[in-house]
Design goal:
32% helix, 5-stranded mixed β-sheet, 5 strands, 4 helices, alpha/beta, Transposase IS66 family protein, 2 domains
């Protein structure tokens, strides 16, 4: 079910219909509850991955727009997936690379500010002006070091 939803992009209502054709009645509400339960079980893994990525000397970040269907809306709106990459293999680090993702419903600089609040080091980012405050001396604890793309 999770593979169908997140890898094959099958909405839960379609999965419910597929299961029904095979004689298995699973309501969308039940499938939604199962997705939520799985996400709750994975929270400690997500938190550990976040801490690992932020505990690096250098992080690369980028954002990607995604179309999102909101409940009760007929038109899709644009949300954003923020990607944070830790990978120092080119610098000879034996540490394994990792990627942490976050979602936001809009494209405001407050999101990377919040995501990167525990990070201190070199941030490789594009020219999105939402990153500017991260490189400012006014940032709590001091500015990050900027590495352009």
């Amino acid at each position: 079910m999770l593979t169908g939803k997140y890898c094959e992009h099958l909405p839960l209502y379609r999965q419910s219909e597929i299961f029904a054709r095979q004689g298995v009645e699973l309501s969308r509400a039940l499938l939604s509850n199962l997705v939520d339960a799985c996400c709750q079980l994975m929270t400690p893994l997500n938190d550990a991955l976040y801490r690992y990525v932020m505990n690096s000397r250098k992080v690369h970040t980028d954002d990607t727009p995604v179309k999102v269907l909101a409940p009760g809306r007929k038109k899709a709106k644009t949300g954003y997936i923020w990607t944070y990459v830790r990978d120092d293999r080119n610098a000879g680090s034996p540490e394994p690379p990792a990627v942490w993702f976050a979602y936001s419903p809009d494209h405001q600089g407050k999101h990377p500010e919040q995501h990167l609040s525990p990070f201190w080091g070199i941030l490789q980012a594009d020219a999105f002006n939402g990153y500017d405050r991260l490189f400012s001396a006014e940032r709590e604890g001091g500015a990050l070091t900027e590495a352009g793309c």
